[in-house]
Design a protein that fits this description.
UDP-n-acetylglucosamine1-carboxyvinyl-transferase, Chain, 2 domains, 4-stranded mixed β-sheet, 12 helices, about 30% helix
């Protein structure tokens, strides 16, 4: 299904929406719930990735196909390493090109038998779970934080807990901190001193209910929409001022695009500041928040702001090569883009809007490509190809997007 977004001349709105629970928090809590059945989760995310992980945990089949769900692949690899049975994990063609070697090597060091069934270093894999006794490993810190979080989530279930020594610079620290904070919230002791993270063993926890905060990555697209508007205001729930999610950095980042954030009880109000004077160039190091890079890049293009975005080495191994995808699609719209292995650079160019041409945006089986480009419909008519790809993280996106822009 393609989504046609006609050029929207009305660029002022004042609406209220609610966003589902964070995919990142939901997936972590679902794994923890397998070890602690008295953990109750409320406002669980409705993303496809969450549903896939839930299904895989509920139906203990010997072979599981998790499609494009990268988080599920990493977390389930660690989880099934603790279960005394054989499990095969596979996924989509793209998933079978996403690396697993660092996580698999770490689990092998801990004594788990994992076999690659096709290409070394990549899914599909066969896991033979075991009673893990070893309690210390070393890992490169400059890798996807999901590898580290996957190990931290199983750590309290291990007889001796787990200490991870991180070598070098650490990527996406907020996601590791999120994992540790959730462990602490349910009563598990953790420490992070210098380059060593330690999680202590815990057989049982006290009864606990956790309400999942809404997803900051998902709200990024509405920050972009507000930034590209002339005058607008949105109230969105459910968000915490003291959030565990790294993408809360949006609050500070989007100040540079004239967007003010106010926390009111369990909601945020985001609004375009009148008379804001936009800078012509911005620079952001997104090493701790790579998931909002596409949103920021598109915002910059729409505002005719040149930008240098760095710290993006993990984008090469996501649902698609996100840097290459951004370059291709923005060039269609008249952008001048340069990318490296870990950075994105955009020159200040006027978007193509002549003759009311409808530009087709390819999404590359990547949910964030679809949602990041949608706000540009304030400036030009667009067709988003394979628009249902948004189901991976935010199934209600098009409904919420249209609700905001509906004049009624």
């Amino acid at each position: 299904m393609d989504k046609i977004l006609n050029y929207i001349t009305r660029t002022s709105f004042n609406k209220e929406i609610k966003i589902s629970g964070s995919k990142s928090e939901s997936n972590r809590l679902l794994i923890l719930q397998q070890f602690y059945s008295n953990l109750i989760i409320e406002n669980l995310g409705n993303a496809n990735d969450v549903a896939i992980l839930q299904d895989a945990l509920k139906h203990l089949k010997s072979e599981k196909n998790i499609g494009h769900a990268g988080t599920a692949m990493r977390f389930l690899t660690a989880y099934f390493s603790t279960i005394s049975k054989e499990t095969i994990l596979t996924g989509s063609k793209r998933m079978q090109k996403r690396p697993m070697k660092i996580l698999v090597d770490a689990l092998r060091i801990l004594g788990v038998k994992i076999t690659y069934l096709n290409k070394d270093g990549f899914p599909p894999i066969k896991i033979k779970g075991t009673n893990i006794i070893k309690d210390t490993i070393k890992m490169d810190g400059f890798v996807s934080s999901q590898y580290i979080s996957a190990l931290l989530l199983i750590a309290p279930s291990l007889k001796n807990g787990l200490t991870i020594e991180l070598i070098g610079k650490v990527t996406s620290k907020p996601y590791i901190k999120m994992t540790l904070s959730l462990l602490e919230e349910i009563g598990i002791k953790t420490t992070w001193l210098a380059n060593k993270i330690k999680v202590f063993p815990k057989i049982e926890i006290k009864d606990k209910t956790i309400i999942v905060e809404s997803d900051w990555s998902s709200v990024s697209y509405f920050y972009s929409l507000v930034a590209l508007s002339k005058k607008s205001k949105l109230k969105i729930s459910y968000f915490k001022k003291e959030s565990l999610q790294g993408d809360k950095a949006l609050v500070e980042i989007y100040k540079q695009f004239g967007v003010k954030t106010t926390f009111v009880e369990d909601s945020i109000i985001i609004e375009k500041q009148e008379g804001f004077k936009q800078k012509k160039h911005v620079t952001f190091n997104l090493i701790e928040t790579p998931d909002i890079a596409q949103t920021i890049a598109v915002t910059c293009f729409g505002l005719r702001v040149s930008c240098d975005l760095t710290g993006l080495h993990t984008l090469k191994i996501k649902e698609t090569d996100r840097l290459e995808a951004l370059k291709i699609e923005l060039k269609k719209l008249g952008a001048k883009v340069r990318i490296t292995e870990d950075s994105f650079h955009l020159k200040n160019e006027k978007p193509k809007t002549k003759d009311n041409k409808i530009f087709c945006i390819e999404t590359y089986e990547d949910h964030r490509m679809a949602m990041a480009f949608a706000p540009l419909s304030l400036l030009m008519p667009l067709t988003i190809k394979d628009a249902e790809v948004i189901n991976k993280s935010y199934p209600d996106f098009w409904c919420d997007f249209e609700k905001i822009l509906n004049p009624k």
